[in-house]
Amino acid sequence: MPLYEYTCRDCGTRFEAMRRMSQRTEAPPCEACGSEQTQLGMSSSAFVGGGGGSAGACSTSAWTGGG
Ligand SMILES: [Zn+2]
Prior knowledge:
This protein is 0% helix and 21% strand. The protein contains no helices and three strands. It is mostly beta strands and 67 residues long. Bound molecules: zinc ion.
């Protein structure tokens, strides 16, 4: 299972949790305060540099459920 990073909207604690891809939107409760107001964290400066990347606009593709 992939590892996702979540951020608590109540206390701002960032924690990681292993979730299934189909359950990544179902954020687990905060490990610090137990709040369920958590959201998927967005790694802003995780992928910097590299070279040879195709920088394009985010294309919204229709996700029709799946496994
Ligand atoms: Zn919290």
